[in-house]
UniProtKB/TrEMBL annotation:
Catalyzes the sequential NAD-dependent oxidations of L-histidinol to L-histidinaldehyde and then to L-histidine. The gene is hisD. It comes from Candidatus Enterococcus dunnyi. Pathway: Amino-acid biosynthesis; L-histidine biosynthesis; L-histidine from 5-phospho-alpha-D-ribose 1-diphosphate: step 9/9. One of its GO terms (cellular component) is cytosol. This is Histidinol dehydrogenase. Its cofactor is Zn(2+). One of its GO terms (biological process) is L-histidine biosynthetic process. The lineage of its organism: Bacteria, Bacillati, Bacillota, Bacilli, Lactobacillales. Zn(2+) binds at Q256, H259, D358, H417. Substrate binds at S234, Q256, H259, H325, D358, E412, H417. It catalyses: L-histidinol + 2 NAD(+) + H2O = L-histidine + 2 NADH + 3 H(+). Keywords: Amino-acid biosynthesis, Histidine biosynthesis, Metal-binding, NAD, Oxidoreductase, Zinc. GO terms for molecular function: histidinol dehydrogenase activity; NAD binding; zinc ion binding.
Length: 426
């Protein structure tokens, strides 16, 4: 693991230097994705089949997964897995129900009513990653907040395989209440959701994590449709002092490192002794990990241990990193909540390990990455609604306001705006 040591200001300078390094392959990806989107927009299902053959090595006759196939997949999944998915569903619903917002109307002034309507989106597309692993938890995390918000139709896309969509993904789709499932992945799936094809209906918003091609495609179609966020590789930041357990910390760092070779696992501490213990433990635990090859590459290239002199400096550095997942493994962790300014999901104490949030606690695991927690939020019910403002004025109420409206309109050089008010009183 890379190691940095110094004052907070020195660490921040080093981190900023890393952050601004340009990756040479980004432009190539942008160009490739742009071509894919144009092809799907023009040729629809034909392009989807061609790209599935080219990228996934699967020859598709039917893009949509039938209800019967979904049901059979559900039946084949082990009972304990189904039970765990249903328990997770209960927790996700109980947490996200609290995010619902209500319409409001006020009438503080005579003859004036102002209000806000909270309206669900009509149709949403959910991208569920495939590739190196199956992620049924991502199905629940993306779909259930949309259901709570009242979205009328939820379309799921996920990469095809030669053996079909994994049964556990189909089971999660059934449990979550997905309306339609399509075996299409990559940038081409995002393009299909954004533009619509013969088989796939155009959606209002696309949510869900994916690789750099999926993220780039979401960025390019934004404006035609809404998106949740542009997510990068997974990351975890851990704040700990000499009282923390190095075995726990190493395990938590590896829980993110095994996602992706580009995943970031970062420990910020005041204790050099803990840093040494954690690094030793990370390499010990790596030896028996099934996904060792991925995790080891992540730890070697992206893993960091940062040593600073004070707890205050720990928070200064971590707030600049703005991690997707933040663990606070300090005594009385709740007392430090006010020190946290930027983080996607916060885990307090030695036993609130990050995987609890990934699968079970009910908090969402679709989170801002790569420092975007400074301005993005976790996926929630609020991502699946839009707000419309309401205004009502009587003639008497407008009479009280007309002079001020006309003055401001004319100050901006918009005479027609002013006359729209004046004509009502001639």
């Amino acid at each position: 693991m890379k190691r940095l040591k110094g004052e907070a200001s020195e660490i921040l300078t080093a981190l900023q230097r890393e952050h601004t390094q340009v990756q040479n392959d980004t432009l190539d990806v942008e160009v490739q994705v742009e071509t894919i989107i144009k092809e799907v927009a023009q040729y629809g299902d034909q392009a989807l089949r061609r790209y599935s053959s080219q990228f996934d090595h699967v020859e598709l006759t039917e893009l949509e997964v039938s209800k019967d196939t979904i049901e059979q997949g559900y039946i084949r999944v082990e009972k304990e897995v189904i039970d765990s998915l249903k328990k997770a569903k209960e927790n996700i619903i109980s947490y996200h129900e609290k995010q619902k917002q209500s319409n409001f109307m006020d009438s503080e002034k005579s003859g004036v009513i102002r209000g806000q309507l909270v309206l669900p989106l009509e149709r949403v597309g959910v991208y569920v990653p495939g590739g190196t692993a199956a992620y049924p938890s991502s199905v629940l995390m993306n779909v259930l907040p949309a259901k709570i918000a009242g979205v009328k139709e939820i379309i799921m896309v996920t990469p095809p395989t030669s053996s079909g969509i994994p049964d556990v993904i189909l089971a999660a789709a059934k449990i979550a209440g997905v309306d339609r499932v399509f075996q299409v992945g990559g940038a081409q799936a995002v393009a299909a959701l954004a533009y619509g094809t013969e088989s796939i209906s155009k959606v209002d918003k696309i949510v869900g994590p994916g690789n750099i091609y999926v993220a780039t495609a979401k960025k390019q179609v934004f404006g035609l449709v809404g998106i949740d966020m542009i997510a990068g590789p997974s990351e975890i930041g851990i704040l700990a002092d000499e009282t923390a357990n190095p075995v726990y910390i190493a395990a938590d760092l590896l829980s993110q490192a095994e996602h992706d070779v580009l995943a970031r696992a970062i420990l910020v501490t005041t204790s050099e002794r803990l840093a040494d213990q954690v690094e030793k433990e990370v390499y010990k635990q790596l030896q028996t990990l099934p996904r060792r090859k991925i995790a080891e590459q992540s730890i070697e290239n992206k893993g960091q241990i940062i040593i600073v002199p004070t707890i205050e400096a720990m928070f200064t550095v971590m707030n600049e990193i703005a991690p997707e997942h933040l663990e606070v493994q300090l005594p009385d962790p709740m007392s430090y909540l006010h020190e946290i300014k930027n983080a996607g999901s916060i885990f307090l104490g030695a036993y609130a390990c990050e995987p609890v949030g990934d699968y079970f606690s009910g908090t969402n695991h679709v989170l801002p990455t790569s420092g975007t927690a400074k301005f993005y939020s976790p996926l929630g019910v609020y991502d699946f609604v839009k707000y419309s403002q309401v205004t009502y004025y009587t003639k008497e109420a407008l009479a009280d306001a007309k002079d001020a409206v006309a003055i401001l309109a004319r100050k901006e050089g918009l005479e027609a705006h002013a006359r729209a008010v004046d004509y009502r009183f001639e």
